[in-house]
Amino acid sequence: MTTLTPKALERVHILDHPLVHHALSELRQKDTPVSRFRQRARELAKFLILEATRDLPTDPIEIETPLGTATGRTLRDYPIIIAPILRAGLAMVEPAMELLPEAEVRHIGLYRDESTLQPVSYYVKLPDRFPPQALVLVVDPMLATGGSAVATIDLFKARGVERLKFLCLIASPEGIERLGTAHPDVPLFTVSIDSHLNERGYIVPGLGDAGDRSFGTY
Length: 218
What we know:
By secondary structure, the chain is α/β, with parallel strands linked by helices. It has a single domain (6-57, 66-215), classed as Rossmann fold (3-Layer(aba) Sandwich). The protein has helices at residues 6-9, 18-28, 34-52, 93-99, 147-157, 173-182, 210-215, and strands at residues 12-14, 58-65, 68-75, 80-86, 104-105, 108-112, 119-124, 135-139, 142-143, 163-167, 170-171, 188-190, 192-193, 196-197, 203-204. Strands 1, 4, 5, 6, 7, 8, 10 and 12 form an eight-stranded mixed β-sheet that branches. Strands 9-11-13 form a three-stranded parallel β-sheet. A two-stranded antiparallel ribbon has the order 2-3. The chain is globular.
């Protein structure tokens, strides 16, 4: 396994829960059918969203129940943006919107050039500026080389976003190092740090191509 520096691990949050481990094991299985793969990916994405939003600010509120008055808390009103990296990131959008129904969704279309392993942009539709208080959650099932993650975060920072988090199901040590070097202020939330990248830039042991397995396009 490629060794990560302590500095790189400072901003990495790894989910540790029996239900998470169970779902990830099924996700990795090569014979898991597409429908089951999507279901497990949604479950894991929901766990990640819950963990990544643990620090959202809230305000106290008084609520009238059928039997009296209760004190509760409500989310503070400020923009939250879900940014899936197409196409595999689409598998994580639905659970994010279930938990954050008021959030915006901003799609980022990137693909990896298989000869250079560098990201190539094919769809970016973003406003020139975002509100300074906005929180952007970038979602992609895999953090492999880290190129797409870095490029996506670059796009949002160039438009004034200061608060970003990156969420993935599986990460490689190489991708974590690259993301941490380019954007040391961006925390990473993942379910697993795998061993290494192979010569084609795929995560080992990984789970294969998350996009193909999510949408049945082999």
